[in-house]
Amino acid sequence: MDASSEFQDSLPVSSDALLAKLDAWGLAYTLHAHVPLRTVEDAKSVEAAMMVEGERAFRIKNLYLRDKKKRNYLVTLEQDREIDLKALGAKLGVGNLSFGSADRLLENLGVRPGAVTPLAMINGAAKGVRFFIDADVKNADRIYMHPLVNDRTLAMDVADLWTYFERLEVTPEVMELG
Length: 178
Hints:
24% strand, globular
């Protein structure tokens, strides 16, 4: 199975159910449909169609990571930021980090590879996943992210994303990466 909306009903929370929840909570967003995207390079190929003149956009990449103690982390970074996992683990005070498997990703965040997103904390919160986000988000008006599948991108005001986390009782840990 791939990470597209075609298979969303096999996820713990479908993309459609997530969008319905955002609507019920009164959180505004713009939804874009596109070909499945698995990498930052793929995302860059469709970004122009989503651009809004004058908007300060936060375009992201997301990492599902684990440490030696089998603790799970979701790390959201500006899409072009270079990252060294050893240095990141030290910065976060969690030791050595490695990428989690596709099975653990589905178990802990309820998504498949290519669809990792801050919105997956709808599943990750109950699983004890710690969420870290790049401090550069504070300089943005809107954030662009997958709504649990990789053939859709949701654009949301950053303030509404924080409201989403409040509703989930998730406290994002903002990282200054310099």
